[in-house]
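haha ok so turns out i had the wrong file open the whole time. this is the CORRECT one, sorry everyone. sequence first:
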Amino acid sequence: MFIGNTSSYIKPQAVLTADGSMTLSLPNSDEHYHSMHGALQESTHVYIQNGLLQIQKSAVRILEIGLGTGLNCLLTYDTFLKSENMHLIEYTAVEANPIEPDIIAELGYHNQIKSIDSEKFLKQLHTSPANTTFEAATNFYCLLHHRKIEEITLPKNEYDLVYFDAFGPRTQPEIWSEEILQKMFDSIDSGGMLLTYCAKGSVKRSLRSIGFLVESLPGPPGKREITRAIKS
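then structure:
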């Protein structure tokens, strides 16, 4: 998700991370869409291994805050197609400032995730009209909202899993406010969970005060901890 509105748009640049995968960097800042220690391994560790693969359901409803490059969605799609237990995924993503498809193509994720047609999926993901559901494969549905999370009304008790992947609290404090975290809590079904790379103490305290059971889990290379919050 970009910083600011479209009038202050800064075109991100593709940069190489330590695991050989690419991410995006915002020029004239130290903000990156993924860890420079490895974009692919970070997304896999945080959202797939500690999120999606921990859901004991055959039908999973996912909300992502900050679609960004679409890497989390791509990895979810890949995991779904390989799974014998998941039979349905409904994937809703919120991204106020979508990235142009030509920039996504520069990242070359299709060269690293070859078990599926990654290039075709990402093109469809980043060119589909907002607020319109498309079926990427049988029983894998994607719905994109090109709006700020502050502007969206979410259904109550809907999602099994939230990927909270916006820029960090230092850059976008409004996204990590207790009001937005409460909105996430209300949208998650009982037993569902929120995953984020962020391990900031103030964020974890806010999550607990809202009613989440908060777990600090080992992070991917270059990061000591990540956070998993469960709605018990």
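Residues 1-7 have pLDDT under 50 and may be disordered.
again sry for the mixup
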